[in-house]
Design the sequence.
């Protein structure tokens, strides 16, 4: 007796050009880069003034604490921390945004690229993948390893340039590289669809 070979039904699949998705992803990265400082600094923290914590002010501290935080909030000091949350959302690594599954979208573009541009497209895909992975890992590390993500700094300091060697600063550069690769990928796809 011969074994039966099951035949799968093949539906005609219409392949859609990922150009619009790549343009949206590129624009998303551009928006992130344009607003990077605002996206990475969170000034929603309030600290008790240091002088209130000194031992000579123990009575005043106990008095303030007994009011269950109903004291004058204007005496608190607003402080900031760096945050990676918004950057990671923009990158799509949290499952949100137009960059979720972006590498698969770029790979789908292989079906629409001019054969003469195939090598350039694959090289840019690899460049994008490296930059995107670097941005993703650096933005993750920024949440736990950057000094400013675990220690507060004053709002005035937030206006000044922060540590350029931080993981968030390096992630910004990797995002810039990924956006440049996306620019070139979009241009190659546009040439292939003319």
Sequence:
């Amino acid at each position: 007796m011969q074994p039966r070979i099951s035949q799968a039904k093949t539906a005609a699949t219409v392949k859609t050009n990922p150009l619009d998705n790549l343009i949206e992803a590129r624009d998303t990265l551009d928006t992130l880069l344009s607003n990077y400082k605002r996206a990475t600094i969170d000034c929603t923290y309030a600290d008790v003034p240091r002088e209130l914590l000194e031992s000579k002010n123990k009575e005043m501290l106990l008095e303030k604490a007994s009011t269950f935080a109903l004291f004058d909030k204007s005496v608190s000091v607003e402080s900031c921390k760096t945050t990676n949350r918004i950057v990671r959302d923009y990158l799509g690594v949290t499952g949100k945004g137009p960059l979720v599954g972006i590498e698969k979208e770029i790979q789908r573009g292989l079906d629409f690229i001019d054969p003469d541009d195939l090598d350039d497209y694959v090289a840019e895909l690899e460049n994008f993948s490296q930059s995107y992975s670097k941005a993703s890992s650096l933005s993750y590390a920024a949440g736990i390893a950057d000094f400013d993500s675990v220690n507060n700094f004053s709002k005035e300091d937030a206006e000044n340039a922060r540590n350029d060697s931080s993981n968030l600063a390096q992630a910004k550069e990797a995002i810039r590289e990924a956006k440049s690769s996306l620019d070139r990928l979009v241009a190659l796809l546009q040439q292939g669809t003319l």
